[in-house]
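Here's what a typical entry looks like (DUF1800 domain-containing protein):
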Amino acid sequence: MSLPPHPRPLTSEDAAHFLRRTAFGATDAQIRALVGKNPRDVAREALRFDSRTAPGNPFDPSTGATPGAMLQLTRAAWLYELMYSPQPLRERLALTWSNHFVVGTDKVKNHPALAGYLGLLRRHAATPSFERFTLEVAQSPAMLRYLDNDLNRRGRPNENFARELLELFTVGIGTPGRPNYTEQDVREGARALTGWSFEGGRGNPRNTYLQTPRASFNPRQHDDGQKTYLGQTGRLGFEDVVHLAATHPQTAVFVSRKLHRTFLADTPDEAAVQGSAETFRRTGGNVGAVLEELLSSAAFYAPHSRARIIRGPVEYIVSAVRTLGGPKLEAKQLLNLAQTAGRMGQLLLQPDTVKGWDGGREWINDSALLTRLQVAAALSLGGTAPTLDAVPSDLALFGSETGPAQAALKGLNPKQRVYLALISPEFQLA
């Protein structure tokens, strides 16, 4: 059955919880604005995206004098958007999808390809069609390059994308003894995916990293023969394979689990995952409908669902800035923070593997924790720390108005209090 709704209007702690999960964090005024509202209305409004971006972004990746400089500017530009976008849930979802449909800048060093990829993640953040989203990502130059489908030709099939389409993007591996796909599906899928490549943006990256690539299909390089894929037989092509994978019943479970890991818990409740999977199937893969139900559900607001997600490096940095009221940081500070996130294990657009970042407890180690202390100090105690219009309340910092951390911080000056709050376990859990 689908997820039951949260039965009451939002309290102040409910509102703080919603914004910690969906907007990285919020000010006291933003929290108060949601108190007393209907949970479904709040979720629906947060998911109403448009094309607006954060004003005044100081970074233009197209001005990068080298591929490396372009990549640094790309990361800083996205970090700026994550911090200051008027649509934080869209950026939260784009970050999630970048860890699902993974591409990496170790291979994709072309600015228009990366800009197009990020545009797809934003446009489909709460997509009404997961199948359409998957197809557009699959045929984007960034993905064609990253998983080598641009090298996939009749008679010389390359299985990289065909494998990850099943294992990481749609149906998932399955369980021991009950796999969701076979090696034959991978081989047949690779044959069906032949012929798609891209033109432009190739060659020596130093000369082509600003050149716009264009996806293209060459029928002479496509294997038009009979294939059997996920139980279906025919002269299958690219769109057929994506359709069969994206609409497979197990895809609903796999994608729903990813959304629950983003918004409910690092280790999701499987019964709740199945509820979202039912909605996914019933709506034909409408991710927006799944999210609206999920973010207004009793499961989302349940006491045992709170403080169950360890904030990743990027989320930690963005949460700190948004909770502090979104003070404007200098361009150099933003560039440094984008690199600092990488030192903590999360370099934007460069996950460790095609599987993406594991997250959860993997974010926590001695080195990463020390760097978090340094970030907190730079944002609160350092000479270049931003000036705050107001000190955040306990509700904004911790999601609760009472707790052991609050009692321990009484009597401290505002800067000390903010610093200790930012390094507390309570702040680092959402």
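The CA atoms of residues 170 and 245 lie 6 Å apart.

More examples are in the samples folder.
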